[in-house]
Give the backbone structure.
Amino acid sequence: MNGPDDSGPGGPGGQRGQGGPGGGDGGGDGGGRDGVSGSGSGRPPRIPLPRASVEDGGLPLPAAPAPDLPQPLRLEHPVLKSLLGAWALAACSAEETAAVEEHLGDCGGCADEARRLREAVGLLQRPESLDLDPGLRTRVIDGCLTRRPPRIPVPRWAQSYDAETARLDALLQDFGDAEWHAPVRLRWFRGQEAASRRTTVAGVIAHLLAVDGLVALALGLDDPLETGGARDADGARGTGADRPDAPPGTPARRTEAFWAGSRFPPTRSVRGPWREQTHALVRTAAFTGGEAEGAMPVSYGGFELPLRDAMLDRAFECWVHAEDIAEAVDYPYAPPAPRHLHGMIDLAARMLPETLAARRRAGLAAPSHHTRHLVSAGRPGRSLRLEIEGSGGGQWLIPLDSPAAVGSADHEVAHVALDDVEFCRLAAGHVSPEEAAAGQLGDREAIRDVLFAAASLSRM
């Protein structure tokens, strides 16, 4: 392909090989096209020097000046020693850093002090937790399910129980005998005051196993109290199955019966039956199916919950007692994933009207001052706005005078605001109503009754 200067003497308009400036065999510079291509001469192409401008008088261009390199600082020993703290914090300038590091190669005393300062800076930095993000499992599973949907999916109302039992099982997997026998105090709220029961980490797992048995019964699975799910250290079955009376129905009585039915206090051997039961509950819930089956009643002795709410309740208690265990062994434990936490709070908010009415019937809450304005079921009535802040929060209107009434913004008489985890700890009986950090506005009596009703949701 021809270049742009083909019209010159060496181009189509002239004779190639002539001694003109563009010729390949002539004298002169040899800088024409044939000179570049080396046709017939075998000479390497010449690289021309830069041409001087007219203003330079035809003289060659001057050499480029050498770059100005920063000269190292020359500092006295006391000054360099005073810079060691800033150097350890990486707060020195480039020149100071170079001067300090050059000095450290010559001064052993400063080198030792610099090493100690660097180690101290490392202690000042907050170490990153080695624990996995509590939402990681949910995100991984969700990502997998977007690529390949499950053949038999876990119902949405059982997913929080699946996640919380898996988190607790991960916490337990590395426990030694000392951790399994660490003392734990179960706490809840009864009537107008706090209550507690002392046990161990293994005893807490036995408690969860016994109460989860209520859901197992509703799903047609074996009851751990009837099958002797608790085993002593020698592997022998406890005597709980030999009791002449049927297994008790309330969570507290079931737990006491389970503990009493073991020949020895529960040990690490309780983890196996608890883990197998949690897997069986999730698997059976998946085979059970959708929302219609989620309405199946689960008896708690004194009251009933639909299966979907019972699974939320069990997830909530699993998280609360996992925090009890983590506190007993001095280990951090994060709250549930936001959507699971929101579901737990929503269940508590939906249970508040009936709990408030029960406390009123028992004389533990002030009677309604608006009995002449009581409304029929499904109609709006006096309401309290419950505002829960945080990633799992939201707002709920709680009817005050009747559980059958509907919360109404037009009939709002009070407003309470709490943090999501703080509200859950109140509902778990771990924070008293008087100590709950709540923002309050409006009818003080209604606020007090609702806070005490929230604490009364807790149980052993």
User: Anything to note?
Assistant: The radius of gyration is 40 Å.
